[in-house]
Amino acid sequence: MDLDLSAYSVRTDLALEAHDLASASGSAIPGVHTSSKDEEGIRVSLIDITSEEGSRAIGKLPGHYITIDVPELRKKDSDLQDRVATVFAREFEKFLLKLNVPANASVLIIGLGNWNVTPDALGPMVVENVMVTRHYFELMPGQVSPGYRPVSSVAPGVLGTTGIETSDIVQGIVERSKPDLVIAIDALASRSLERVNTTIQIADTGIHPGSGIGNKRKGLTLDALGVPVIAIGVPTVVYASTIVNNAFDLMHAHFARQTSNTGQILGLMDTMQEQERLELVKEVLNPLGHDLLVTPKEIDQFIEDIANIIASGLNAALHEAVDVDNVSAYTH
Questions:
Q1: CB 3.0-4.6 Å disulfide test: which of 61, 68, 115, 151 passes with 205?
Q2: Does 281 lie in the same domain as 198?
């Protein structure tokens, strides 16, 4: 029996995962340049997509992507969280330099997502913790100490709670406040259990709210807003089909340690490629409405922790007067 799998594709917001899928054959992808480095349990990967061919191959817009992977981040290690915030701040500063963003550029931080839904509340929670200074520059510019820049922030909500497209709200704010740069923060979807709650992505391509869960809304991009947009995201959910597929991989690895004939135990599924197997699982689950979005039970605490990490990193990266020694004074 031939299965029609063309209607099913792997959804991921992470450029690193998209690159891994596209380069599974081992051949290089033209117009895509990658590099990575490890430092004490923190892996920083860079992907530059410089051509339309590379963009089509990966399914991501041309631009610069940074992925910070921290497998141990779920263990609530405060020292590790501080180191991640430091690495994030350093990489974000480099990102600003690469984009030629001056030290005095005004910044608008947008916290995307629904604050009433914990896995989607990352953006609003970061906004609660970032240091806003634009009003000081507007009302008392002579009293602002050196080392700070104008920063404003807003959590515009979601279409279902406001009745207004998020991009329309943001566009109105941008037109009135005229920032030099927009930073949009949102929760993402991943195709891998290992990256949920352990990965931070930074990209200069803007963002389309809801795209990772197939609910694409109008984007926040340079073309739409007229100013550069840096997107920051953390995967907080995976599809049930991804969990099923990952569970099969774990079973295969378990049986492979005990026998060389895993096919006798796992049958036809053992001969299928990962992509084909995932699409088959989706074909079974989707008509039943069972391909749910799933988040870990510890999500409440994790969202608070990762929001604080990102806010601390942004405070240090955006303001020269804030560094790793005093950054905790600006968050809660």
A1: 61
A2: no
